[in-house]
Design brief:
The protein has about 170 residues and is an alpha/beta fold. Helices cover about 35% and strands about 20% of the residues.
Length: about 170
């Protein structure tokens, strides 16, 4: 997938706009953040308790937290269903930017954050415990420059998919 420039929504308070960073400016924005920089990524379609707990725990591992956010096209490529994401990327970015634990949000088009990770070179890469952190290409990449990767505990029963199923009455 080619990189696409995602303009920052202008209808947001300036405090939120400042946290949503166009990809072309992400390297410079990361350089201004306190270290160590922690990076995580995901779709974050309907923000829920599992997300909030996970992001707060990720932030506690460093001085700054950067969230790589799958664009709408990227999220659709992940096979979560034709109607997903339910919330468009600008809305998902705004909600993440409103969290105290999040310092920066950067959208990416690819199905994985590998290219974005290589551009930003964070100190720590974090994923939820539902991933095998040792088996991820992202882990090998981050370790190649001396960074580390860590899996955080997965909060059972707290997922957007299960929430959508409950809303639809299919769970």
């Amino acid at each position: 997938m080619p990189q696409t420039s995602h303009p920052v929504p202008t209808d947001l308070p300036s405090t939120l706009q400042a946290k949503i960073c166009p990809r072309s400016q992400a390297g410079a924005a990361i350089a201004r953040l306190p270290r160590p920089v922690v990076f995580t990524n995901g779709v974050f379609d309907i923000l829920h308790r599992g997300h909030v707990s996970y992001l707060a725990s990720a932030r506690a591992l460093g001085a700054s937290l950067v969230v790589g956010l799958n664009s709408d096209a990227s999220a659709r490529s992940l096979g979560k269903g034709p109607e997903r994401p339910l919330n468009p990327q600008d809305d998902r970015a705004a909600v993440l930017a409103a969290l105290q634990s999040v310092d920066l949000v950067v959208l990416f088009e690819e199905s994985t954050p590998l290219v974005l990770l290589a551009e930003l070179r964070p100190d720590v890469y974090v994923k939820g415990g539902d991933y095998d952190i040792e088996g991820l290409a992202e882990t090998a990449l981050v370790r190649s420059w001396g960074g580390r990767s860590q899996a955080l505990p997965f909060v059972e029963g707290r997922s957007t998919t299960s929430l959508v199923q409950r809303i639809r009455g299919t769970a």
